[in-house]
Amino acid sequence: MNTNNAGGGPAAGKPVAIVTGGAKGIGAACCRELAKKGFRVGIHYRSSKAPAEQILAETGGDGFLIAADLADTDQVETMVKEIKERAGRVDVLVNNAAVSINNPMSAMQIDAFDAQRAPLRGTWYLTKRILRLFMLRSGTGRIINISSVVGHTGNAAQIPYTMEKAAIEAMTKSLAKELHGREILVNAVAPGFIDTDMTDELPEEIRESFASQIPLGRIGQPEEVAEVVGFLATGGSYITGSVIHVNGGMYGG
Ligand SMILES: NC(=O)c1ccc[n+]([C@@H]2O[C@H](COP(=O)([O-])OP(=O)(O)OC[C@H]3O[C@@H](n4cnc5c(N)ncnc54)[C@H](OP(=O)(O)O)[C@@H]3O)[C@@H](O)[C@H]2O)c1
């Protein structure tokens, strides 16, 4: 991608990638992959400060940490200001943070519904601010939204989560259209069943039962998702408004 930024000043230098929920799991793997690809990585976290510091150290230390609860737009606004001061540019935004709370609809409480909706609202706001402050000004950028296979297939006991994932794909497609004629590409990556804290919470027999139904016969690794994010961050110049499935054959799209 074009890493030049007219005007120089604080925007000059290494391209910058921001990864939300970058301290753990798929987000942490994305931070490592993007650092390997030459990005200065802004590692966002909410509560996982120590793991975020660890990722910063692992990725060579020229990145930076940003803390914010995406449920709170004031915190997102502060986060954007910090990014401006520390980096002065954003070339890639990976919207990875999300929450999954499993319960059947009849038992799910409204607070649990809201807790799962809040990161999506914050993601919409963060994306809007990053567009306005950086990408629309530079005329280039990559926005990569982490969705899920269950946004397509549905999943019992995950109705709010599947709604959020269908919604982030709708945002992906609509924003790609809205950015008509600009070199700002917007895509989603939809992982299947990946080995992270989110899936560690499931009982072992459920994990085994899921794995046995996957054509590749195993749960995926965060690095296998991050590899595709790395591709969309640097290549794929004619791909926008798309969803790339990374699920070991569970679902073909
Ligand atoms: N694991 C899977 O099988 C799988 C499958 C399909 C899709 N995905 C998607 O992949 C992405 C990463 O999931 P993961 O499995 O790596 O999960 P994870 O380890 O639980 O990470 C989720 C991250 O989201 C952050 N987060 C949650 N709520 C937030 C909020 N309100 N504000 C700011 N940050 C918030 C958390 O930050 P803190 O820890 O700092 O609080 C956490 O680091 C998610 O979008 C998930 O839906 C995962």
Walkthrough of the structure:
The chain is of the alpha/beta class. The protein has a single domain (14-192, 228-246), classed as NAD(P)-binding Rossmann-like Domain (Rossmann fold, 3-Layer(aba) Sandwich), CATH 3.40.50.720. 45% of the residues lie in helices and 15% in strands. Strands 3-2-1-4-5-6-7 form a seven-stranded parallel sheet, with helices on both faces. Strand 2 (40-45), helix 2 (49-58) and strand 3 form a beta-alpha-beta unit. It is globular. The structure holds NADP nicotinamide-adenine-dinucleotide phosphate. Residues 21, 23-27, 45-48, 69-71, 96-100, 118-119, 146, 148, 191, 193-194, 196-199 line the site of NADP nicotinamide-adenine-dinucleotide phosphate. NADP nicotinamide-adenine-dinucleotide phosphate (NAP) binds next to helix 1, helix 4 and helix 7.
In the CATH scheme, the class would be Alpha Beta
Structural class: alpha/beta
Query: DSSP helix count?
Result: 9
Bound molecules: NADP nicotinamide-adenine-dinucleotide phosphate
Mean residue pLDDT: 94
Task: Outline the low-pLDDT stretches.
Answer: 1-11
CATH superfamily: NAD(P)-binding Rossmann-like Domain
What is the strand and helix layout of this fold?
Blueprint: E1 16-19, H1 25-36, E2 40-45, H2 49-58, E3 64-67, H3 73-86, E4 92-95, H4 110-138, E5 140-146, H5 150-153, H6 159-178, E6 183-191, H7 197-200, H8 204-212, H9 222-234, E7 243-246
Parallel strand pairs: 1-2, 1-4, 2-3, 4-5, 5-6, 6-7
Helix pairs in contact: 1-9, 3-4, 4-6
The structure holds NADP nicotinamide-adenine-dinucleotide phosphate.
